[in-house]
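Assemble and predict.
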Amino acid sequence: MGIKERKEREKKQRANDILEAARQLFERKGFLNTPLQDVAKEAEISVGLIYRYFQSKEDIFASLALKGAEQYDKQLEALLKKAKGAKSRAQVAELLGDIAESFFAFYGPYGEYFDMLLYSYKGMKEVQIQATTLTRLMSVTLSSLDKLKTFVHRSPYFKARNEDEALRTVFLLWGLLLGCHKLFDSSGRGHLFAFQKDTFIKEMIEQVLVGIGGSTSEGKEPVRKPSLSSRELQFQDSL
Amino acid sequence: MGIKERKEREKKQRANDILEAARQLFERKGFLNTPLQDVAKEAEISVGLIYRYFQSKEDIFASLALKGAEQYDKQLEALLKKAKGAKSRAQVAELLGDIAESFFAFYGPYGEYFDMLLYSYKGMKEVQIQATTLTRLMSVTLSSLDKLKTFVHRSPYFKARNEDEALRTVFLLWGLLLGCHKLFDSSGRGHLFAFQKDTFIKEMIEQVLVGIGGSTSEGKEPVRKPSLSSRELQFQDSL
DNA sequence: TTTATTTTTGAATGCTGTTCACTTTCCTGG
DNA sequence: CCAGGAAAGTGAACAGCATTCAAAAATAAA
């Protein structure tokens, strides 16, 4: 029964062609500025055929987001394995920096709709998206969070004493990543701030590791040399 | 010259009517699911007239976002004034909780497009938005950040020694707020997590105040009783 | 009252996501 | 090799909606 398998393969291939065409165009011109006609042309098929492979334009994006999330999950796993047993602040900081980089690589292109799909998006158009895609998207997200939790729990660096405390730490880090990304997504109309992304992330990580409060423990922290200057708080825009 | 003034007033009033109609509908059905026809009907005018007051549908949303941001900025100012001199961790935690609440009130409805406008949004439709609206939106954002920075710098609680260190702290907090919001925006398709918003925010604040790292300083922190349980890490969905 | 200006209308326009009747291609059983 | 039926593929037609515009209505000025 090789025919059925070949057909299966071809179908997968075709779906992949569509996704790849869409990915390129979405990245170049933006999701809302890319008509499906263009996607069809790029994939060298007719418009109608797209709907034999995806339920809607949003469904295509959801599939792309899923691929991105799965890739991130794999990278995260590798990074955590590599850093297992990290003990010094420098080691942990490096790990977090790597995670941030990997996270941004996925979240940059797909984050917008990833949010829409997962957390629901008030402004989102009500359209059909394949249930399995959504389910897998959630599943892989939870998987990533769980990996992080386990790492934090077992790590000799973090002081979380049980899984629940570790989970809080994970949410803090996760939230910080999301927030940093927002503060920093910097391709397009104009930038609010004038600092470098890499430096910014590094300093945020350092800051969260050090903590922000506790005037009681004054003096025990190593001296930091911030590159973030108050002078950065100004327009660098192009209106 | 009362006529000109009256006309001015009426014009402002009309613009406000449109905004209010749009606000209601956007909130109820979502931005993308609300045709301008409906906005016009709600405001009891014709579709065409909307375009004498706003440059595009997105322009309406930008105006709404601006109003929200301005309101938040005012509330922030009041909260900071009230909490001036806060010294204990409990006081600071309460302040941050209040700020978070105020932030979410604004960011919930308008955040999506606020992001689009400020940080630029790859998926955004390329449309005309009044330049002054964008400028003011950025301006008020920077103003809020600056207020926070000044507070942190002068506060006896935070250990920031200069404005630059204070700014880092502010970005950390700001990023955390954005991140928490994302993790928690929970109206619609389904929720990833199963915990309560208020509790969650409180615990995140506590966590960031305590810090997450530093196994060296073990034991000096007060015992925490987390309500976030690992069991929460599962679907609570409605697919 | 007449004329000029501004406001307001809603039908027309154009773009685009989605559907559908139809054609082509491909597989299978005789 | 040949039907004939299923699956893949097509692109014109449809529908929804942001946006425009020519014309009408209302208002101000003369």
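Helices of chain A lie at 2-29, 36-43, 47-53, 57-82, 89-119, 131-154, 163-184, 197-210.
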